[in-house]
Amino acid sequence: MFKASTYLWCCCLRRCHVQRVRGHPAAALHHLTHFPPNEVDEQVLPFSPTRHYGTGTEDDPFTIYRDPELIGKDNLKRLRFVCISDTHNQIHKIKIPNGDVFVHCGDAVRWSSAARDILVYNEFVGALPHRHKLFIGGNHCVCLDPKRPEQSQKILSNMIYLQDSMTDIEGVQIYGSPWRPKRGIIYPAEAFGYDPTRIREEKWSNIPADIDILLTHGPPYSVRDYHPLTDERIGDPGLLDEVVTRVRPRIHLFGHMHKCRGASLYKSENNQVLEGDHFQPQSNDILFVNLAIHQGKTLGEPVVIDYYY
């Protein structure tokens, strides 16, 4: 069980009030793309898939089924998701493939000019051809008032704004939450920062169980969450525990950690220590994808997912 004592605290310059996790099991993962930096050997697993999952590109999208028993069946419904995060005012430079649902997991702008640039972003997204468009806030979205999500929805008029809320898109249940453990007062880009000792009880425990897709801005602990400046993992252990033991989405999309972009597959059969009493072998495969586009001087590409149900 996650407790406040899971966290250590560092008060060094540039790391003031940055939480450090201790004694919490890490998720064992199969990395499908972009091997993350600083992975430890015991967390990385060899992978011999029984089917092709795809690579997340427009020509070879990730292929995910709501139920493994649907694999190979005919006449299934399909939604194509085109997913990005952390574009930081650069979205106009990105080739965005067509699809059914456009997803942005936060930080469309930079904090210093967020109020102006969020309007430009909204206009750009309004011109995209996707039938459905989803957005959650990120730490740079300081122009969005967490206490007034209805006002944020008015600002983001060309998309569905999710803040601890769910939407149903053609029978697919999607929940979005923008929060992440806060870092302290020295960080100007600190929108949606939350007390890490309370975030699980007050935010993550409210995520509905058995949704299809979860959107967060920050990563769960040990899943593409390495911070090269602090040499630490900064994902949230409470989020990890809720996702893998109770919520069990088929897909979890996030961003925030730019250097850890890419996709990893979580399989219950490899994570008995992490799941504990909730362990159900071969019942909880989750596609985790860090969607961060902005890679310093370069930009990544949107991730494309075909979801069959």
TrEMBL record:
Entry GO MF terms: hydrolase activity
Ranges for domain Calcineurin-like phosphoesterase: 79-260
Pfam families the record matches: Metallophos (PF00149)
InterPro entries linked: Calcineurin-like_PHP, Metallo-depent_PP-like, UPF0046_metallophosphoest
Domain of life: Eukaryota
Family as reported in the entry's similarity comment: Belongs to the UPF0046 family.
Protein name as annotated: Calcineurin-like phosphoesterase domain-containing protein
